[in-house]
Amino acid sequence: MKQTTVKYSLLLSILAVLFSWPLLCHADDIKITSRSAVLMEMHSGRVLFSHNADERMQPASITKILSLYIADEAINKGQTRLSDQVIISRNAWRTGGSKMFIQAGSSIPLDELIKGIAVVSANDASVALAEHIGGSVERFVAQMNNKARELGMFNSQFVNPNGLPAKGQFSTARDMVVLARCYLQRFPQAVNLHSEQYFTYNNITQRNRNSLLRHYPDADGLKTGWVAKAGYHIIATAKRGNTRLIAVVMGAKNPGIRSREAEMLLDEGFRMIGEQNRRRQG
Hints:
The protein is α+β, with helices and mostly antiparallel strands.
């Protein structure tokens, strides 16, 4: 009965988000040069702005939010623990791109892998996590795609747990804002990790690539990404008072545009919410 109630509540939440799309509050002065973008008020799921929200492209490292969702869910269900020692395979060790530089054959606590994924987008840690939780990368990816459908991400397909370029892997800004909302609602403590600006492992310190954490007031997450074919992505979130906004920008030409357009969306969103609140009070 409890599981049925949870699934029913999740379905209602997804439907609330989906049916809010025709009721967009357009902001004519927002000029987006990135390929797609979405701005959402998290509590209500109301979309304040969208631009080419259904354009498919490779999701790059924002894929890792889905991997972290599955990891947090497995921990909550008691299927694994943060203190579990994960044996690093050669497959994980040789993964390219951004890394936390784990060594094949070493044993690392699961919570360190999660930090590496959340803060410095470690591709090697993502593979190690997938093997630990799913038993294999292939089985973990199957979990990812099942979870994506369950959350209402109907225009996404995942091939790996880290977002490295792969044929047949795609998502959209619409699906990613749905994922981000579900993730933050289900695991609100996750922002404590995503807001960390540095991560140190094995005497190597790396910086979080989300520049909004350093420049935008009240920003506390969530994830950046880049692949050559798609461009620069970000899922950005910030909270002021009781209002949390989620901005997704995908396909920016460079990281500066990615950050500026995410900041512009957040600024406009907080302005719009503020005006609406003042009208209600007046």
